[in-house]
Design brief:
179 residues; alpha+beta; 6 strands; elongated
C-alpha cells in the first residue's frame, strides 16, 4: 500500500496583505456605487416636500440642481491597504458672494458675513434660516440624497458585482499565499 502525504503551508504575511488589497478594492467599488447614487438623486431631484420659500426664491422645482455645484462636489477618499476606509463626502461650500433671482425677475446680490459652510450637509438634514437672512426664520425641509442610496445598496447590480469580485479576489489571495 502506498501512502501519499500532502502538505500545504501558508505565508501569513502574504495572505494578510492580499486580503487587505482585496478589501480595499471592495471598499472603493462600494464608495463609487454610493457616489453615483448620490449624483443620481441630486440630478433627478426626487424630493417631494419643497417649501414655498424655496420655490419662490428660485422659481423652479429644482433648487438642488440649480447650479449643479452640489452634484459636482461629491468626492471619494479611496481606501488603501494601510487605511481600510473609503469615504464619500460632499465638499460643496457656500460662497461669500450670492446672487438670488426673485420671481419678479429682479436679482438681489450681496455678500455673506459668515464663513462659507458645507451646504450639502444642511440640504441633506434640513435647517432653519437665520433671523437676519433674506427670508428670516423659515424652516427649509430636508432633501435627503444620501440615505436612499445606502438603503438600496444591496439591490444595486454594481454592489452585487463588487461582492462577487471580492469573493474571487479573496479566493485568489488564498491560492497565492500557499506555498
Amino acid at each position: 500500500m502506498i501512502t501519499v502525504k500532502y502538505k500545504k503551508n501558508f505565508d501569513i504575511d502574504r495572505l494578510i496583505s492580499n486580503v487587505k488589497a482585496s478589501s480595499a478594492v471592495l471598499l472603493n467599488d462600494i464608495a463609487k456605487t454610493v457616489k453615483e447614487g448620490w449624483d443620481t438623486e441630486i440630478k433627478q431631484n426626487s424630493f417631494t416636500s419643497l417649501s414655498s420659500t424655496t420655490t419662490s426664491l428660485h422659481g423652479s422645482h429644482r433648487p438642488l440642481n440649480l447650479s449643479g455645484k452640489l452634484a459636482k462636489s461629491n468626492r471619494i477618499v479611496k481606501a488603501t491597504t494601510k487605511r481600510l476606509k473609503a469615504k464619500v463626502h460632499n465638499t460643496a461650500k457656500s460662497s461669500t458672494n450670492y446672487k438670488i433671482r426673485k420671481p419678479n425677475g429682479k436679482v438681489q446680490k450681496g455678500t455673506r458675513k459668515s464663513a462659507p459652510v458645507f451646504y450639502g450637509y444642511y440640504q441633506n438634514k434640513g435647517f432653519r434660516t437665520a433671523p437676519d437672512s433674506l427670508i428670516p426664520n423659515r424652516k427649509v425641509p430636508k432633501r435627503d440624497f444620501t440615505s436612499k442610496t445606502v438603503d438600496n445598496l444591496e439591490k444595486n447590480p454594481k454592489y452585487i458585482k463588487a461582492k462577487r469580485k471580492f469573493a474571487n479576489n479573496l479566493e485568489k489571495s488564498m491560492k497565492m499565499a500557499s506555498k
